[in-house]
Amino acid sequence: MQQEKKYSAEELIGQIKLEMSLRMTTAEYMLWVYPTELYSYEGQQMTLIVPSENAASTLYSNYLGLFLTVVKDLKLPVTDFVFILEKDKENLPKAPQKEEKKEEKVNPFVQKYTFENYVIGLSNRMAVMTAHTVAENPGVNDALLSLNPFYLYGGVGLGKTHLLHAIGNYLFEHNPSLNVIYVSADRLSNEYFSSLNKYNTDKDSYRNFYHKYAECDVLMVDDIQFLQKKGGLQEVFFHIFNDLYQNGKQIILSSDRPPKEINDLEERLRTRFMWGMTTDIGLPEYETRINIIMKKLEGSSATLSEEVICYLAEKVNTNVRELEGALLKVLMYSQLTHKEASIETVKEALKEQTRDAAEQIDSDKIINTVSEYFNIPSSDLIGKKKTKEIVEARMVAVYLICELLNLPLVTIGQIFGGRDHTTIMYSRDKISNLVSTDKNIRRTIEDIKNSLNCR
Questions:
Q1: Inter-axis angle of helices 9-23 and 64-73, to 10 degrees?
Q2: Which pLDDT score is estimated for 396?
Q3: What is the CATH number of the domain that holds 29?
Q4: What is the pLDDT of residue 251?
Q5: Residues 6 or more apart whose Cβ sits within 8 Å of residue 407
Q6: Residues 145 and 277 in one domain
Q7: Is residue 97 part of a domain?
Q8: pLDDT the model gives residue 360
Q9: Contact at 8 Å (CB) between 330 and 296?
């Protein structure tokens, strides 16, 4: 009679993990089985340490059957598996800790981006108030009002990144013990794929990546829309999100559009992004643009007359970044040419910028071209009038802006007098359908595009 082979606990878990890796997708194995660690093996019961309650729940409900099938097929002496958290371990000998030199914590956030120097106006008031509340009480949810996650969206150059760094700077000053991580979605993606690529040479690379983000106190992800079309990363981020949320940790996300407008995003992620507070930052209104210029001049030896400030605020009406760039250009031009910053000097300084803008297609150019084509004032296109002719021309203008410019629907709505993004979506889809069925509409779109020099 052949004697039954005896295995050490390490040999058993090694065989089990190897076989599991062959029967699961790489993403599943790396996410659920690879991070488990052997705790004990007694009386044919194997106890494994898992990184989170979510992991334990998933292993019990989705993978316990596969564990049992594997040990049965391999004829291994294991009949039961138990999954426990690190905190549940008892009486484990602790390795002596080396005394490490305490290093002073470095602030990773851009220090000029604070709440104090963020100019508040009608277009961003709600976003700023929410950001400040989150900074004061990260991860705390009121029974009636949840601010977790805090989802902030708006067009380019409107101050989203400033607000995220303002939260980070506030937490660094008032709650320095918190582990706060700020990362762009692109960098998160690069780290994720790098951890998978390193797996052959560094078995802990993926686990270290996952724990870094799933175990922080506050996670801020900028430009979250770039998660679209990254299925594997979406799967991992879903579980990172769950771990953070279940442990009462604060999640802050920024994007150029609301969750429902992010294409190729898993519905379960989209739903979670909308669990908490979703708010937008709009285009700064005239008074806010004036305040932005005055704020930038504070603490500077440069001065501008009220007339020049108002002129700049009127002419540069796109976003905060371009307004600040135009102001810097005017001040530099005035200094280099030794000319006083008058209206004429401003016109000279911005002449090239104005010419370049004229050569490019923007929303104003599209609206003006549509206005000329239909012989309808541009003020009526963005106004409230609803005659048949104006509504048709307005929908054509909306369609062309959607097609030719990479702008969020919310921003386009603001261009057309503050209309809701669903109205913009309806206009876009209506003309889009007509283009494929109505020769007249198709010819109209082609004529206007020819006028815009973009066929």
A1: 110
A2: 92
A3: 3.30.300.180
A4: 95
A5: 155, 363, 401
A6: yes
A7: no
A8: 64
A9: no
252 in the same domain as 167: yes
Whole-angstrom Cα distance, residue 117 to residue 101?
A: 36
Q: Nearest to residue 426, comparing CAs of 452, 387, 398?
A: 398
Phi and psi (nearest 5°) for 313?
-65, -30
Q: Same domain, yes or no, for 20 and 77?
A: yes
DSSP string across 59-103 = IIIIIHHHHHHHHHHTT-S--EEEEEEGGG--SPPPPPPPP----
Residues 224 and 151 in one domain: yes
pLDDT given at position 453: 66
Q: Does residue 29 lie within any of the structural domains?
A: yes
Residues of the chain with pLDDT under 50: 1-3, 91-99, 355-358, 455
How many whole angstroms separate alpha carbon 371 and alpha carbon 380? Answer: 9
**220 plus 80 within the same structural domain:** no
Spatial distance between the Cα atoms of 150 and 409, rounded to a whole number of angstroms: 20
In this structure, the answer to whether residues 134 and 275 fall within a common structural domain is yes
DSSP 104: P
Looking at the domain assignment, is residue 111 inside a domain? no
Q: Which two tokens stand for residue 88?
A: 């549940």
User: At a CB cut-off of 8 Å and minimum separation 6, what does 423 contact?
Assistant: 413
Of 281, 306, 333, the position where a domain reaches its end is 281
pTM above 0.70, yes or no: no
Q: Tell me: the pLDDT tens digits for 207-257?
A: 888 889 998 999 999 999 888 777 788 889 999 999 999 989 999 999 988
Specify the pLDDT at position 321: 82
The boundaries of the domain holding residue 309 are 286-359
* Residue among 290, 239, 226 at smallest CA distance from 62: 239
In our burial notation (b when 16+ CB lie closer than 10 A, e otherwise), range 66-90 reads ebeebbeeeebebeebebeeeeeee
DSSP string, 55-66: HHHHIIIIIHHH
> Tokens for 51?
């990184």
Domain count, the chain: 4
Q: How far is residue 204 from each of residues 198, 209, 337, measured CA to CA in Å?
A: 9, 9, 59
Kindly state whether residue 107 falls inside one of the protein's structural domains: no
Claim to verify: residue 380 and residue 355 sit in the same structural domain: no
Q: Which residues, at least 6 apart from 61, have a Cβ–Cβ distance to it below 8 Å?
A: none
Whether 236 and 340 share a structural domain:
no
pLDDT at 273: 92
| Helix 388-404 and helix 439-451, axial crossing angle in degrees, nearest 10 | 60
With the C-alpha atoms ordered 149, 184, 213, 191, is the resulting torsion angle positive or negative? positive
CB 228 within 8 A of CB 172: no
